[in-house]
Amino acid sequence: MTTIWTVVGLVAILVVVVIIGWLIGIYNSLIRLKNNIKKAWSNIDVLLKQRHDELTKLMNTVKGYMKYEEGVLTKVTEARTAFMKAQTIGDKAKADNMMTSTLKSLFAVAENYPELKADRSFAQFQNRISEIENQIADRREFYNDSVNTFNIRIEQIPDMFVARMLGYTPRELFQADESDRADVEVDF
């Protein structure tokens, strides 16, 4: 009789160990996903800072040529200020969308200044900002992939139970601004 109880006790201990190991696995994978989201946003943040720094140089180059385009320069300055004041991911995303829209306007206005387009410094800064914009787009995609995976995992059973114990809630995806979704007019 004691052999049966010993076997039952060992099976119970084994079941408890398996369940604990399984819960630890879920916990660790959720932590990894949460940290991937932080890393992805940090990568975006670094690029946004680089863009901000490059814009300062670009603005100084452009100011001499675009004396009559104060409205565009003001918008770029406002977008840069909004980014610097942004505290949350949502605020930074809005400021980023504002900057993207403003850059389109700046480069469109620059088309009216052939001597500016020919300026080597302007061309270098414009290329650098374009590179950064492409990198930001790539990082946004990685961020959204990470957020999507995290959101799915915390809503699936059994991960949902561990996620609720940890107080995890769905994260917000990085979304394009309405103006970025507008149809672009091409005129030949």
Shape: rod-shaped
Helix proportion: over 70%
Q: List the secondary-structure elements in sequence, H or E.
A: HHHHHHH
Work out the strand percent. Answer: under 5%
Number of strands: 0
Number of helices: 7
Provide the domain count: 1
Model regions low in confidence, pLDDT < 50 over at least 5 residues: none
Overall pLDDT level: 79
**Class by alpha and beta content:** mainly alpha
Gyration radius over CA = 25 Å
Could you tell me how far the N terminus lies from the C terminus, measured between alpha carbons in angstroms? 93 Å
Q: Biggest sheet: strands, sense, closure?
A: none
Question: How would you characterize the overall build of this protein?
Answer:
The protein has 188 residues and is mostly helical. The chain has one domain (32-177). Helices cover 81% and strands 0% of the residues. The protein is built from seven helices and no strands. It has helices at residues 2-63, 70-85, 89-110, 114-118, 120-155, 159-166, 178-181. The mean pLDDT is 79.
Short descriptors:
single chain; 188 residues; mainly alpha; 81% helix; rod-shaped
Summarize the structure.
The radius of gyration is 25 Å and the shape is rod-shaped.
Write the layout of secondary structure elements.
Layout: H1 2-63, H2 70-85, H3 89-110, H4 114-118, H5 120-155, H6 159-166, H7 178-181
Helix pairs in contact: 1-2, 1-5, 2-3
